[in-house]
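Hi R.,

Here's the chain you asked about this morning:
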Amino acid sequence: MAVLSLVSDLGRRKWVLRRLSEDPRECPPASVIVPVKGAGEGLAGNLASLAALDYPEYELIVVSRRPEDIPAGVIPSGARVITAGDGPPGAGEKVNNLMAAVREARPQSELLAFADSDGRVQPGWLKALVRGLEDENAGAATGYRWHLPEPAGSWPLLRSVWNAVIAGGFGPGRNRFAWGGAMAIRREAFKRLGVAERWRGSLSDDYALSAAVRDAGMEIVYAPGALVISGDHTSPREFLAWIRRQMVITRIYRPGLWSLGLVAHLVYCGAMLASAYLALHGNLTGLYTLIAQLGLGSWKGANRLRVARLSLPESAGWFRRHGWVHIWWVPLGTWIWLYSFLASALTSTIEWRGNRYRLSAGKVEKL
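And here is the predicted structure, written out as tokens:
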């Protein structure tokens, strides 16, 4: 498993280098939508980065459920502010906000792009997403996030290592899902694929949009130039609750993907324990297999690190100071991943942005 995982990852660097050098053939008018819920770490700077994109014609829409959900002094000049209200029952607050913003997007916008308020984007973020939509059979384009906490601490760095495993799964060809913090779709496709209808009764905007694209036989294209910097920090309790929530949402909306990940981590961690047991009892085969497994995992972490540095050249200083954790903490990250799967196995209730929800595949119940 370790060898196959590494081999599948080695060709990704060349593809990322090539894609980063490509600009879109056209830059259609766009609406960039970002929901806001309270004062998050770095919020003003994150919104400012979305207002300073290197793109000829776009509008920035900041949307919230209530006016007081947006702190004073964070809205960039020229951004539109929309208040969504409570919205219809049976959907999450973020989804309701996004639906309201899509309805209010200016008529001339041919492209809808979605961002999260806890991430900082690069100037070429929107161009990278548009370039992804130019691929043959592209239904949606997506970026992803990379956690770069500064100053760094053990738990924020561990979150960076945990999250990098997902980032390493994006690349050429078909991608399993679009990520809501860096996601774009043509407006015509949004309507034709019935994304708004998919959002009703859903908590997850990105999994619902991804399902609409896949069911239409279209592809989700990864845009490495749309990699987003998340610089916020976390405590141990927040981190463990966060990864549990991510996996609960995955289990409800992508049960096949969740089950595959659970089985893979049970086998992988079981092999690690078996090898360690044999090695401790003097069996050289156990020692060699343990070294091989840990070495290949760290090599894969190093490859993920190199690819991220290509996409985020302005963060080279952070990678020099802290990038080592993505090599040496990979074994620890593997066990944290197993915890996240097991913690999400027996519950369908999550907490998100001050709200509690009970989830099912076709229904969201606010508690």
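One quick note: The CA atoms of residues 243 and 321 lie 25 Å apart.

Cheers,
M.
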